[in-house]
Amino acid sequence: MEQTHAVTGIIFALVFFFYAMFIMHRRSFDKRKRLPPEAGGTWPVIGHLHLLSTKEPIHITLAKMADAYGPIFTFRFGRKKALIVSNWEIAAECFITNDRIFASRPKLLASKLLAYDYAMVGFSPYNPYWRYIRKLATLGLFTNKRVKQLERVRASEVHCWMKELYELYCHQNNKKSEKVVVEMKKRFVDVTLDTIFKMVIGKRFATAFDDHVGSEKCRKALKDFLKFFGKFIPSESFPFLSWLDIGRHEKAMNKTAQILDETLHKFLQQHRERKYYCNKGEMEEQDFMDVMISAVEEDHGGHFSYDADTIIKATCLNLILGGFDTMSVTMTWALSLLLNNEDALKKAQLELDKQIGRERQVKESDVKNLLYIQAIVKETLRLHPPGPLLVPRESTEDCTISGYHIPRGIRLVINAQKLQKDPLIWEHACEFRPERFLTSQKYIDVRGQSPQLIPFGNGRRICPAISFSLNIMHLTLANLLHGFKIDRPSEELLDMEESQGLASDRKAPLEVVLTPRLPAQVYE
């Protein structure tokens, strides 16, 4: 018996010895790994959070830090470590070479509470569910065939929008005002919301609700949704504080989620009723929600943890959110840049007069000939990408980026605005020069083929709605510039300060003076 105990003791001692040697060897190996530099100034517990300013957008703060620490460094959001990248070659390593490893999303509290427990394709982890929903969304709305089919909707909504602007001018001009001043930020939101709602829900946003209160409540909830993803939520970095709900963020997110869910549920019920009558022969043109109902109910079959209604509502809401703010923000910046660069504005209108004339409005088929208009949109996306920090990703395995060891579970944040102002790539990188896309850099595109210009992201999680978004922006801007003479309210240049948030909009309103350029009958 004593001999047995002795053997057991020896075996245990050997196991413990070899385990200790393994741990020591692994720690020694980890120390030899080349890790990316970490930004200075970290504090215990809160990391680098104290370095973020309430007066300056976070992407600008991180851009300044990149000047100090280099194009790749780590930043601690409390206990969460993020890899900050602001160089296109390093970003290409993440999005192309290691695309699969960085194809997932971090599980944020906002994604759980607002995005139907990660059911929204834009916030879902990389898994079979994500591939299934992305395929449905692409086939339902973003294929070339489907984009072409929806051309009529885009044309109709832009025409209605132009008519409303013209009627606004006529109404104010009848009051003998010296100038007809229009705030364009809200106007751009109106046309994008109406267009996207018509494609997804089958109704314009302006007519989709029973009353004005309901539409304004939904509009606010859509804006609040995006704002929450730009906020620091203490419980994400410090889970032990979650029960306190510091800042009442969780309560506010639940309220916003409820408003949006009730809105989408109402639309879904209306579509189911319409489908019942369609099945009886009263067939109407299908919108995206109709397509989703048919596809999910026929193919879903309970393969995922979400029920069919949740999948449909989450996907439709994702498409609405992914489009209205980013497109309106881009068009707002484009018009702001043109008003501060009058030569470019004149060139755009000369091109429109030459290609279109002054007897009709711009059609989508005309856009292929409007090369300068396309260049304006590209240059705007370069200087002011709608999401200056691309939506964070998360590594699912250890990997090597730019010679550095990157551990599993680190968040990846690409500073697209900093990346797209690299002076080694772009001459006069911070200046608005659309001509660059007609000459030396005419082959650089925004659709994922050029890693130097990635306003829509890159790799597997690139935005699937690029053609959809560009079509709306080209058509809307071309018609606005063609239909109206546009001036600043004063001689002073517009203030170009950026607001804070997930989509970096102008901080100040965009007030412009509009005067029709075309015969009255063209606006009818």
Which tags fit this structure?
single chain; 524 residues; alpha+beta; Cytochrome p450; 3-stranded antiparallel β-sheet; globular
Explain what the structure shows.
The protein has helices spanning 2-32, 58-69, 88-97, 109-114, 128-142, 144-149, 151-174, 184-200, 212-228, 234-237, 249-278, 288-299, 308-340, 342-356, 371-383, 416-419, 466-483; strands at 72-77, 80-85, 181-183, 393-394, 399-401, 404-406, 411-414, 484-487, 511-516. It is α+β, with helices and mostly antiparallel strands. The protein folds into two domains: 1-32; 33-523, Cytochrome p450 (Orthogonal Bundle), CATH 1.10.630.10. Strands 1-2-7-4 form a four-stranded mixed sheet. A three-stranded antiparallel sheet has the order 3-9-8. The N and C termini lie far apart (103 Å).
Summary, kept brief:
By secondary structure, this protein is of the alpha+beta class.
Q: Helix and strand layout, with pairings?
A:
Blueprint: H1 2-32, H2 58-69, E1 72-77, E2 80-85, H3 88-97, H4 109-114, H5 128-142, H6 144-149, H7 151-174, E3 181-183, H8 184-200, H9 212-228, H10 234-237, H11 249-278, H12 288-299, H13 308-340, H14 342-356, H15 371-383, E4 393-394, E5 399-401, E6 404-406, E7 411-414, H16 416-419, H17 466-483, E8 484-487, E9 511-516
Parallel strand pairs: 2-7
Antiparallel strand pairs: 1-2, 3-9, 4-7, 5-6, 8-9
